[in-house]
Amino acid sequence: MPKAKSSRLRNSSAGDRAFDAFNIIFMICLMIVTIYPFINMIAVSLNDANDAIRGGIYLWPRVWTLDNYKYIFGESDIYHATLISALRTIIGTIVSVFCTAMLAYTLSRQEFVLRKFVTMFFVFTMYFSGGLIPGYLLIRDLGLIGSFWVYIIPGVIGVFNMIVIRSFIEGLPEGILESARIDGAGEFTTFMRVVLPLTIPAMATVSLFVAVGQWNSWFDVFLYNSSNKELSTLQYELMKILQTSTTSATSSASDVYQSADNSGVAVTPTSIRATMTIIASVPILMVYPFLQKYFVQGMTIGGVKG
Fold first, then answer.
1. d(CA 103, CA 86)
2. Do 224 and 92 share a domain, yes or no?
3. Burial, 275: exposed, middle or buried (Cβ in 10 Å; 0-12, 13-18, 19+)?
4. Of residues 116 and 9, which shows the higher confidence score?
5. Using the 8-state DSSP alphabet, how is residue 230 labeled?
6. Are residues 88 and 220 in the same domain?
7. What confidence category does residue 162 fall into, taking pLDDT thresholds of 50, 70 and 90?
8. pLDDT value at position 104?
9. Does 96 lie in the same domain as 19?
10. What is the domain count for the chain?
11. Same-domain status, 197 and 256
12. What is the mean pLDDT of residues 47-76?
């Protein structure tokens, strides 16, 4: 086996070796460009705010401190807001993916007479929106303002996600669905017991899209629940902290914001922004390893069907 490998290396042309070397160098550079901003944010968030003003922090904190995180988690509403964010992410993702998958299955059936019309109706909403004010009036008339469900119901159906799942379902062997019908399964039973297990790769991808959107969303909180602290989310609270630290910062060169409520902890808008980025990113990054195998499965399933 080693002889065969060495023979292939000798037979490869200089152009092939140069191309491989270029690919390796390019991917290393791409990895550095992708990872460096996140590492730099971690270093700034763990560095003393006064010292960070000097600059020169790249991959490693110069003066270690947890004051930035103490300042963020010292806010009384941050823990309840994190709970609301987690609930809207979990519930919103489950409801949205399930309803979107049901719609995708319906529109993938050739026997559904209005499938083209309904599909075009949904696609139309991707290009044209009613606008912010009509949307707010609709939410008000539905009685969703001031309720938790304003985070869930408006985003139940994602058109792009529906197209992704529908395309995946259309690629499934029709014989599997026909065999389920021959065994007496109805459409809902076929969807639950046959289609859903086979579309896990597509739904895992869509779930990640929906979960990231739900976790990062704060503008809907600002529009519909800004006066209700019980329904405030983590992203909205972090936005308020950043806005407060920015508008209240001193105008001197130090630009440091002191908060008496946090035992005199000194922070700057830059350090708060870096800390907020880490706090908001880490939870959603922890989800990816659990979905990675489904991404790989989705990439290889077409080759297995071949």
1. 26
2. yes
3. buried
4. 116
5. G
6. yes
7. very high
8. 93
9. no
10. 2
11. no
12. 83
